[in-house]
Amino acid sequence: MSALQTRGLGIRFGAFDAVADVDLTLEPGARQALIGPNGAGKTTLINLLTGVYRPSSGMVRMGDQDITALSCDQRARMGLVRTFQINTLFPSLTPLLSVVLAIGEREGLGATWWRPLRRCTGLFDEAHALLARLRLDAVAHVPVAELAYGKQRLLEIALALAARPRILLLDEPAAGVPEDESGELFEVIAELPADISVLFIEHDMNLVFRFSRRISVLVSGRILTEGTPAEIGSDPRVREVYLGSSHVATHAGAAHG
């Protein structure tokens, strides 16, 4: 059974089909990339998957359950969690407190905010372990505003993982991250537990071909093709989408050669 699946999914804004007739399958434990030129509808598709937008047509299933009509919060409680292109962190908090608050929210402790956090030792233990997994333990007590941008993006993933997701959707996690930090970020993503299915949007083809096991190509709101990195790298239609050059094939060869 697939972790996440769409059939005929689409949304229309006026006369414009932003996403149309998308059949997408995310297998359990997937490391799948969603690529396409600017304006292809990638973030719009993520918004459909997470319930930000209600579709004009089609359906979304999570496991064996139809979630098409569920809200963002309902989907998140089922384990469908996302990050955004632009981070939404609190700059004055530390990574440790940020993750502790996220875990507390998951556990329904928001209504007991008056309880001293330091008494919640279990939350701190879990937060420390999560930060260590994402290689953030060394900066656990540094204000977020002082972190390198790559570390901030990792913290966003840590906050998403605090929700204990079954499916993690990453919208351009390396956007704005310096090249020498983006590789580390994706190494951490690759090391996530095997029971978490990951779908990520990314424009850097080197990262896509290094870290994905399957690639879906979206063009003008429709799936052009899907396949393994090797299959996508040798597909002439994909090369044409990317400026009519051997751009994609070059990265595919570098990643798998």
Structure description:
It is a single chain. A six-stranded mixed beta sheet has the order 6-7-8-3-9-10, sandwiched between helices. A four-stranded antiparallel beta sheet has the order 2-1-4-5, covered by helices on one side. Helix 3 (95-106) crosses helix 4 (121-133) and helix 5 (149-162) runs parallel beside helix 6 (179-190). It has ten helices and ten strands. The chain is globular. The protein has two domains: 1-79 and 165-257, Rossmann fold, CATH 3.40.50.300; 88-164, no CATH class. The model has no long low-confidence stretch (mean pLDDT 89). The chain has 257 residues and is of the alpha/beta class.
List strands and helices in order, with pairings.
Blueprint lengths: L3 E10 L2 E11 L4 E5 L6 H9 L6 E6 L2 E2 L5 H7 L1 E3 L12 H12 L14 H13 L15 H14 L4 E5 L7 H12 L6 E5 L3 H7 L2 E6 L2 E6 L1 H5 L2 H6 L5 H10 L1
Helix pairs in contact: 3-4, 3-5, 5-6, 7-10
At a glance:
The protein has 257 residues and is an alpha/beta fold. It has helices at 42-50, 72-78, 95-106, 121-133, 149-162, 179-190, 205-211, 229-233, 236-241, 247-256, and strands at residues 4-13, 16-26, 31-35, 57-62, 65-66, 80-82, 167-171, 197-201, 214-219, 222-227.
Provide tags for this entry.
single chain; 257 residues; alpha/beta; Rossmann fold; 2 domains; six-stranded mixed beta sheet; four-stranded antiparallel beta sheet; 10 helices; 37% helix; 23% strand
